[in-house]
Amino acid sequence: MVVTVMSSHIRDIMGSGDPDLMFADGFDDAILGVCDRFGQGSVVAYDYRRCIDILVISGMSNDEAVEYFDFNVIGAWVGDRTPCFIRLSECL
Fold first, then answer.
1. Exposure pattern of 30-67 as b/e (b: 16+ CB <10 Å)?
2. Distance (Å) of CA 74 to CA 1, 12, 67
3. Which among 10, 30, 29, 7 has a CA at the least distance from the CA of 21?
4. What is the tens place of the pLDDT at every residue in 77-89?
5. What is the three-class DSSP state of 62?
6. Whole-angstrom distance, CA of residue 41 vs CA of residue 52
7. DSSP state, 30?
8. Do residues 35 and 45 touch, judged by C-beta distance below 8 A?
């Protein structure tokens, strides 16, 4: 399991170009970047596996982390700028 530690100012850096970006609290270390979509506002993109790893490090089992994350984070629609969570291919 690898969790990359990013600058504590990642939200400021990313948000400076677009102050309307929305972030998932507690998952800054899983940010991959910004996803741009035609005709829609940009959204922050997270690595799904890293998000699960962050929850496991905080004390949850892997199964608990997946259940919690899928229901409480991915399941939390907060508008058109809701972040996206990318499942990177195991083949890469």
1. bbeebeeeeeeebbbbbbbbbbbbbbbeeebeeeebbe
2. 21, 23, 10
3. 10
4. 999 999 999 998 8
5. helix
6. 26
7. G
8. yes
